[in-house]
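Entry 14. Ran structure prediction on the chain below.
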Amino acid sequence: MGIKTAITLEEVSHIVSCTLLTPTVNGVSDSVYLTDESVLKLFESASASAILEEKALLLHLSHLPVTKHISDIFFLQKKPCVLYEKLNGKSLIHADNHHIIQIAGFMRRLHQQTAGIASTNTPLFESSRLQALIRQTQHVPFQEIFDSIDLELSCDGVIHGDLFLDNVLFDNGELSGVFDFIEACEGDFLFDLAVVAISWCLDEKGDYSKVDLLLTCYNADISVENFIPYMKYALLYYSTTRYLNHRDYQSLLVKINFLNAYPKGTM
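Output, structure tokens:
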């Protein structure tokens, strides 16, 4: 979450009754404000159809701890906006085993509900799209990593694809909400889980116990060793997109070196 488009209380007064309009500071994709009782999101690039797709998905997942739309689409400064339910809790800076057990359970239930369903959103994480993004960067190391990953992604159903720590809330140690499904699309469930692994679990000290815990609690039928290509792919994807958006990508890219040093055959 973050701010690209500045708006004022006066601009929203005809839409929502509030006394507070507090800009958020994390993230770069859209402009997000906290009001007294809701979250106002101004979409910088998403279409109205993508917003309606998200609304339908969140209704489908309403029994899970996910946010929901509490308004129809409206426009501010010619950009589409939605009010979301305001959830309790805060995002984590670091995840411990208790948090990983909970996010693994959430991912398992999420994928059970989205298995086999279709999405009209562009499938963002396909290898052909990543290859095109890498060509845009003209950054040779990205291509070398891409060529080294032996992985064929599946289309299992709809995935979130971006479940970094800042898209999940915890309240008193308990998972209280997951949000930012605007780019949810068809994809590979193990890739979706790998995004969680690289941000919640991956330890630069070479301790893979959190990754193993994530896989075990998700009930994934895959070893840590065989899961490594999925984590490399997730790291490469987000390194590439961050590079193109002039954000820090090296902190992700360096984790691939940790994975290259994994002692194969030990788990």
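Residues 208 and 220 are 15 Å apart (CA to CA). Will compare against last week's run tomorrow.
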